[in-house]
Amino acid sequence: MSKRLILAGAGHAHVAVLAKLKMFLSHDISVTVVSPDELHPYSGMGPGVLSGQYSPAEISFPVAQMTRDAGAEFIADKVIRIDPTARSVHLSSGSILGYDVLSLNVGSEIPWPGETPPEKIPDLYPVKPISNLYRVRERLEQLMQRGKAEVLVLGGGPASLEIAGNLHGAAQEIFARKGGSLPCIRILAGRRFLSELSGRARKKARHSLNRRGIKVHESGYVAELGQGGVTLENGRVVSGQLMVMALGVRPPKLMEYSGLAVGPDGGLRVNRFLQSVSNPDIFAGGDCLYFEPFPLNKVGVYAVRQHAVLVKNLYAALTGGELEEFRPGGDYLLVFNLGDGTGILQKAGLVLGGKLAFRVKDFIDHRFMHRFGR
């Protein structure tokens, strides 16, 4: 009797599995991929879509086509609950699918400060899903034709740096093409901007932002979101016609709601084989897991490093083979796209800025896209 593998989500960690689907199918293993959209944008290139450096198609994996071309099943839907006892997943459409092995690559989400539901706040866009950035660019273009817009980027990490820089790049491109009024762009960075980067990297980032008139505020965290602006923890109200949330990410509540063992961040608690510590027939990759041996930062490089191990262990779990240990590796390269053809590169003690840094990032990102699906 054939066994069934379900892949929930089609992010960084699963694209390698999609590339190896025929290996599973040739051994009488049926594979179903469940993902909300037929195209999955690569988050590493997302900010570049905002500034117009890339088109949405250029940064998207055709996950539905990849799945169907291999002979597997693709369902455009979302897993909303896992029943580990019945070994089934419940979809938002109401469908229920059984599995022998389940792999989760459901990404992460932006935490919401305050009590106002996000759907009640117009012109507020979290950076995830990445497709939101397409809407941000469209909205910016509309606002620029109406007058000088106040644009707020909420968050103090590298994502806010990239979003602010690429918003500026978008505004420059729109202004050159259609005219209008250039916006005022501000980063509300909490109490310390880019606290996890080296001093040299922070200095280069500040210089780039200052050169383009992008202001950074470090007067407190966002306490409440509202229509037309935000309230900081010190009570100060900051107005904004367009707000982009880059406040950091956390795993979705799917795993916790489903009664699976999770880590302190809510991610699926996995062992050194990327296997659930409570349910050995469930595996995970990317931002949605909590690596029990030691916590991993929520950066795409770990999802990429998990590729080969996840493929091997899913196959081994379905065929009775031996599992392979995931070794996260040491220092990793960070490169940020500043939206004007320049970037900042950091690895260990090395920091580079300028056009060369962006070219390195652009090369790495395109190589990844061409390796899996494009």
UniProtKB/TrEMBL annotation:
GO terms for molecular function: NAD(P)H dehydrogenase (quinone) activity. GO terms for biological process: aerobic electron transport chain. The keyword tRNA-binding does not apply. Transmembrane segments: none annotated. Keywords: FAD, Flavoprotein, Oxidoreductase. SUPFAM superfamilies: FAD/NAD(P)-binding domain (SSF51905). Its cofactor is FAD. Residues 5-289 form the FAD/NAD(P)-binding domain. It comes from the Bacteria. Coiled coil: none annotated. InterPro entries: FAD/NAD-bd_sf, FAD/NAD-binding_dom, NADH-Q_oxidoreductase. The keyword Oxidoreductase applies. This is Pyridine nucleotide-disulfide oxidoreductase family protein.
